Amino acid sequence: MKWPKFFKKHVYDRDEISLSIYRKRWQKFKTMKRGYYSFVILITLYIISFFLPFLINNRALVVKYEDHLYFPVIQGYIEGTTFGQDVPGETNYRLLKQTWDETDNPNWLIMPPYPYSPYEDITVEGNKMFDPPNSEHWLGTDNTGRDVFARLCYAFNISISFALLLTILNYIIGILIGGSMGYFGGKFDLFFQRIIEIWSSMPILYVIIILVSIMKPSFLLLIGIYTIVNWISMTYLMRAEFYREKAKDYVAAALSMGQSDFKVMFKHILPNSLVPVITYFPFAVVMGILALVGLDYLGFGMPPPTPSWGQMLDVGLSNITKWWMVFAPVTAQFLTLLCIVFIGEGVREAFDPKVYSRLR
Questions:
Q1: Are the CB atoms for 340 and 282 separated by under 8 Å?
Q2: Residues 174, 310: one domain?
Q3: N vs C: which end of the chain shows fewer Cβ within 10 Å?
Q4: How far apart are CA 69 and CA 91, in angstroms?
Q5: 98 is in which domain, residue-wise?
Q6: Are strands 62-65 and 108-110 parallel, antiparallel or unpaired?
Q7: Does the residue 323 lie in any domain?
């Protein structure tokens, strides 16, 4: 049965109205093709990066030796003599597999798809310094014989994790302090403005240099140091949003009904102040990645031999003739940051109040 045109239009409009504003914004974001596809690609790669020990590693996934099964990728270090290999230290699984294959040994093992670790250097048989890209080392090796492709992939996970954690912590602190400043105002606002002015004048690079010289740098230490000052920009954004929203009628109505300040701030005002928070998020992640790369490049970042784009770039620029050492980290950073910027553009367009707002 065919429905009248006016009925079809009425149903369509009703369905459109029934969609929540966030659903509409998500649908708008999906129409921004380069932002949406960048989001899907980046999320997929980030999830895969947590399984890198099973994909890129010099330790075997499974070893069957004399009717016993071993799982080196999970168990960790296993002496070379365990499998009858006459080598010092840990088992060389690539060499062991080659030996068993050549001698038709009944024992067997399964290696990861890319059988190189980001940490093994020239002390492991077969590794060479500055070995150019080839069928074995897809992006060559660095100045210590470590595989560049393996280090590039592991550094991706570290960089994204660092930037996400840093941004989330900055958001939590910035929203709490900035929201309180905007909501309560008065002396409370003036007091924290003076604190922020003093705090923002702190030379963060010198603080990092001093702390790194005293303590051993680590992932959490760098997060903590950067969080000390990075929350300030989000604080000013939230202060302005809360100042604007608290003057509206729905806030006065909530207060007249006896709602507590905490409920008014985080149940009523905060949901209406999320547009700048969400649109700024991708660009804050970009700044987090660049911060870690810059620290690693200067030598004040993650301790060696932790995989790092900044450290790889430093080695490449110190040995400029080894083109792959510059090409690999620069390309990885460029593509990652480009995807995040595309996501940011898509989010900014989807959250544009001229397109969808709570008043439409």
A1: yes
A2: yes
A3: N
A4: 15
A5: 58-111
A6: antiparallel
A7: yes
